[in-house]
Write a structure and sequence with these properties.
With about 80 residues, this protein is mainly alpha-helical. About 45% of the residues lie in helices and about 0% in strands. It has a domain at about 10-60.
């Protein structure tokens, strides 16, 4: 098994770890190990695209049909050298 040293922990964070460990009848080291194990055992969430997020909100409402505006012909470019 590997070992690890964590330096520069905020005093308030260390106090919360000590309290949490005491509530669970564990040492601070065991509590930190359990926190790391729990945090890293979960599957990372897959990033959701903005399109998928919008679709997920609108689809239960029956969706939305939008009229697509007709395209205009391409304009001639502006000539600036006159």
């Amino acid at each position: 098994m590997a070992s690890m040293t964590i330096r520069n922990i905020d005093d308030a964070l260390k106090k919360r770890l000590r309290v949490r460990a005491a509530q669970n009848d564990r040492s601070m080291e065991d509590e930190a190990r359990d926190i790391l194990r729990s945090a890293l055992s979960a599957e990372p969430s897959r990033p959701v695209s903005i399109v998928d997020s919008i679709r997920a909100r609108i689809q239960p409402l029956g969706g939305v049909e939008l009229d697509i505006a007709p395209r205009e012909a391409i304009r001639e470019p502006i000539v600036l050298d006159r």
